[in-house]
Write a structure and sequence with these properties.
heterodimer; A: alpha/beta; nine-stranded mixed beta sheet; globular; B: mainly alpha; 27 helices
């Protein structure tokens, strides 16, 4: 009996020393796969859209080949990514489309996340119709005429109304409120993921069918399926403050980078590099198109871009 | 003469029993009808018919919102997190890391050698070769590192599940009271779709490995607990008597008699736990588990079916290898000859030598030039399919047209019908079905579960999900029974079918999602299609087994009476296999529900979308309520279709 007690005590003591005695801050734990072989490593969060994958691919390629880091990537949705960033599970988000609540909580109040500057790309969300349809019916590009075309946009899923296709539930959207407040005869159908939405749009385009979709730029798909934006009532500062009463277009957002606060301070060359990382919409689309359309692996696409744009990325390393 | 009377008497009694059973069903229905006649007018006058009355709902969004704020604000300071969850979390991180580092240090050659040698010692030469080939294939597909990450996660999750399950099972096996208390809990855990409880785990543990491991343990521990309890309780009474008479203490009896006697059940439990843990690998990637699952998930984001398949195949290979090896180990139990320790020592030495050789030559990483890219050809096939099958196929129409017809002619009417039904009538139907098939207890559980959905305020979306489940189950059963019958009648068909079923059953559900969108467009139809593909193997397997197990004597006598093949099937095989067929329905329902929810990712809407939305936006109120509704729906469906004899498996 005595022996057992001692061994239990020993075990408990070992566990305590192992976990660093006393309190364990679970909010400061890196991924178990990080730094596995003594190499310097960091974890980047990838969002589900291809533009975000392009940022990460190029950053990862340069970090690995020019700075000698090992980079892990984890796909996380936008809001959970903020949470993961504040806990240090990931070290950086390279493309954020604006989350004021999260910024207030983590950047201003808790100070666990530090801004990493502009990405250099400006994002814009809007409603789009395929250009082939807009050419036949030029007046479809104003929201006031959308009801006239509801019959064209009807699908099995939209009931008797026209279908307004929305994407992933993680994206910023006011579309349900917009449809109601602008009194449109449309049904918002959520594709559930960007992948599903792209697949469906390509199918529609192949048959030259009309469709109305929530979409955003920069986006590589515009090169494959040219689309024209539908004019919504113009955006004014604060017109989207009350989520239920929104009746205006989406803003233009300069996309931002965010770093974990500790990483930003002590991340050495990697953190400095990520802060300087800044490229244009065209650059991003070039890489995105290689990944999503030519089906190159993200790393191959990044290599191709890196090989031909030395002047751009040299500046990030200095 | 005597025998004749005996048979007459026997058939007379059975006819009587049948009659009585028929009467009992009528009686149950009558009783329900009377109860309904009394209660319904009251309900109707209080609250209008139609959809669930608003007065009977509870809005949980405010308290849930507060709870989530509290957790986020206190996660880095409150003692509960610092001294409890923190330890759990860092224990998980440390152990996963330890396993991962060991796997990396062993190198690809070492890991392959060790795996093959373990397979050889426990399951024979053929499986050893298969195991080695499977591991090499993982490397060849360029997935070595993700495979090791998944393997590290699996090792820890399976160990934790086995430990937890065995402890629970031990308690339930030794004490009747614990057994009775635990059984409904385990029953319930097994019908819960894993997708529904990702959110609460994430909220406490954050995105990442600890959350993934814990979600996996919740999912994978029940079969171990159940089978451990079963093994302990079924211990041969004679042996136990003998051991007791020898004066063994309780602990001695447990260690020397009960546990060894339960070895087969324990191993089967391990096998089931491994399979379920692996099936979680991809779902857990939604909450940042990393590894193979994450590769599948990332590939799907760029609509790259080929890359998703390249990461999905290692999961299938791991599952098949682990299933076969643990299965074979169970069969060989007790047939081992002596000198095993020595052989193990040789085997271990050989594996160590290989690992060292890899280490010394510096070949730890899988060589980058030795990879085979399957993504491109696969994508070409998928493109061809979508180009040629999506629409405009002469005469039969394209898959998009079918999906449209299916949506308008089947899904819409079923959904509208369900949503049009007065809420109390839905409860009545549920009660009647559950009572006819099960007992009043199952009926009560089913009705309460359904009512809980209404109280949570998600009546309409739940009925939407239910309509998708019903449609998918109908299609699955038609296809599954037909295939099962074909496989039961012909060995050849079954042999051909087996690997196909293996693949479909172990392939992560996510891999289906994009091809079904490419074929059927966005909406509920692709969700239903994915669910059918996923649930079909289990239904086919159970049907085949059930039909095969039909007493050959009965078949023989039918044949000697000149019954045709169809008659044999209809009048002998199907009625005798009734239990198995019911079980197939039950399994089909549970599996279909699990995938229909994931269909929220391809436009299935309803509850699945709400769960995804909750996860994506960190919106506890929406996500958790939808998750709870899914749980209730699963419980209701399970109880309504519950045959008297349950099996221990979830994935069949």
């Amino acid at each position: 009996m005595r022996l057992r007690t001692t061994s239990v005590m020993a075990g408990a003591a070992a566990l305590l020393t192992l976990t660093g005695c006393g309190a364990v801050d679970m909010t400061k734990q890196a991924s178990p796969f990080a730094n596995a072989r003594g190499s310097k490593s960091l974890t980047l969060s990838v969002q589900s859209w291809v533009g975000a994958q392009a940022n990460v691919a190029v950053a990862q390629y340069l970090l690995e080949h020019e700075l000698g880091y090992r980079v892990d990537t984890v796909q996380v949705d936008e809001v959970p990514a903020w949470d993961a960033l504040s806990q240090g599970r990931v070290d950086a988000i390279l493309e954020d489309w604006g989350h004021p609540d999260q910024e207030k909580r983590y950047v201003e109040d808790k100070k666990t996340i530090a801004p990493g500057g502009d990405l250099g790309v400006t994002g814009h969300i809007g409603w789009y119709v395929p250009t082939y349809f807009a050419k036949q019916h030029p007046d479809v590009t104003d929201w006031k005429n959308l009801n006239k075309y509801a019959g064209h946009m009807r699908t099995a899923e939209s009931g008797g109304k026209g279908q307004l296709m929305d994407g992933s539930p993680s994206y910023v959207t006011n579309d349900k409120a917009l449809v109601a407040n602008l009194k449109l005869n449309y049904q918002v159908v959520f594709a559930g993921s960007e992948a599903a939405q792209i697949t469906q749009m390509k199918q529609f385009a192949k048959e030259k069918k009309p469709f109305l979709t929530y979409w955003y730029s920069p986006q590589w798909l515009f090169k494959k399926v040219p689309m024209t934006e539908v004019k919504l009532p113009p955006y004014k500062e604060g017109c989207d403050a009350d989520a239920a009463k929104v009746a205006c277009a989406y803003p233009h957002t300069p996309l931002q980078k965010y770093l974990n606060a500790d990483f930003a301070k002590s991340g050495g060359k990697a953190a400095a590099f990520l802060k300087k990382f800044k490229w244009t919409t065209e650059d991003q689309n070039e890489v995105s198109l290689m990944i999503a359309n030519d089906k190159l692996s993200a790393q191959d696409a990044a290599k191709k871009w890196v090989d031909s744009h030395a002047s751009t990325w040299r500046a990030w390393l200095s | 003469m005597a025998t004749v009377t005996a048979t007459v008497g026997h058939s007379g009694v059975s006819a009587l029993l049948k009659n009585l059973r028929g009467h009992r069903a009528v009686g149950k229905l009558l009783l329900l009808a009377v109860a309904a006649a009394v209660i319904v007018p009251v309900l109707d006058s209080h609250w209008a018919s139609g959809t669930w009355p608003g007065a009977l709902t509870v809005d949980l969004s405010a308290p849930l919102g507060r709870a989530s704020e509290w957790i986020i604000d206190n996660r880095d300071s409150h003692p509960l997190f610092l001294y409890f969850f923190g330890y759990v979390s860092s224990a998980v991180v440390l152990s996963v890391r330890a396993v991962y580092v060991v796997l990396l240090a062993a190198g690809w050659a070492g890991v392959t050698a060790v795996a093959a040698l373990v397979a050889w010692r426990t399951a024979g030469v053929r499986l050893a070769l298969g195991t080695a080939a499977a591991f090499l294939a993982c490397g060849l597909l360029g997935m070595w590192v993700p495979t090791m990450q998944t393997l590290a996660l699996m090792v820890v999750a399976v160990l934790a599940s086995v430990l937890l399950g065995a402890l629970l099972g031990l308690a339930a096996g030794l004490s009747d009271r614990t057994y009775r208390a635990l059984r409904p809990v385990l029953d319930t855990m097994q019908v819960l779709p894993a997708f529904a409880y990702l959110l609460p785990v994430v909220l406490v543990f954050g995105i990442g490995v600890p959350a993934a491991v814990l979600a996996t343990v919740v999912y994978a521990a029940p079969p171990m607990a159940r089978l451990t309890a079963l093994g302990l309780r079924d211990a041969d009474a004679g042996v136990m008597e003998a051991v007791t008479s020898l004066g063994a203490t309780v602990r001695q009896r447990l260690l020397t008699a009960r546990l060894p006697l339960a070895r087969k059940e324990l191993l089967l439990g391990l096998n089931q736990t491994i399979m379920m843990a692996l099936s979680m690998a991809v779902i857990a990637s939604v909450i940042g588990a990393g590894g193979l699952g994450d590769r599948v998930y990332q590939a799907l984001a760029s609509v790259d079916v080929g890359a998703a398949l390249a990461a999905g195949i290692p999961i299938v290979l791991l599952a098949v290898v682990l299933d076969r090896v643990t299965g074979a180990a169970g069969e060989r139990l007790g047939s081992d000859s002596g000198a095993t320790a020595l052989r193990w020592a040789y085997a271990a030495a050989a594996a160590l030598a290989v690992a060292l050789a890899g280490h010394l030559t510096g070949r730890l990483d899988w060589p980058a030039s030795w990879t085979l890219s399957i993504a491109e050809p696969v994508n070409r096939v998928v493109d061809w399919m979508t180009n040629h099958l999506y629409s405009g196929v002469p005469y039969i129409g394209g898959t998009a047209d079918w999906a449209g017809h299916f949506t308008t002619w089947v899904l819409d009417p079923v959904r509208d019908g369900l949503q049009w039904l007065p809420w109390w009538s839905v409860l009545l139907i549920v009660a009647a079905l559950a009572w006819l098939i099960g007992t009043w207890r199952t009926a009560l559980t089913a009705v309460l579960a359904m009512a809980a959905i209404g109280v949570l305020g998600v009546w309409k979306p739940s009925l939407d999900t239910l309509s998708q489940v019903l449609a998918a189950v109908a299609v699955t059963l038609v296809l599954g029974f037909a295939t099962g019958i074909a496989a039961a009648r012909s060995e050849r068909v079954e042999r051909l079918l087996r690997p196909v079923l293996d693949v479909f059953q172990t392939m992560p559900q996510f891999v289906y999602l994009i091809p079904v969108v490419a074929l059927f467009g966005v909406g509920r139809a692709p969700a239903v299609a994915a669910a059918v593909v996923y649930a079909l193997p289990a239904v086919v397997r159970i049907t085949t087994q059930g039909l095969r197990a039909v007493d050959p004597a009965a078949l023989e006598s039918a044949r000697s009476l000149g019954a045709t093949g169809a008659q044999q099937l209809r009048q002998v095989q199907l009625p005798l296999a009734r239990q198995s067929l019911l079980l197939a329905v039950n399994q089909g329902v549970v599996l279909v529900l699990a995938v229909v929810i994931i269909g929220g990712l391809v436009g299935g809407g309803a509850l699945g979308y709400d769960v995804v939305f909750g996860l994506a936006q960190g919106d506890l109120a929406t996500g958790l309520v939808a998750g709870a509704a899914i749980v209730c729906l699963g419980l209701m469906l399970d109880r309504v279709t519950q045959p008297t004899a349950r099996t221990t498996k979830k994935g069949a």
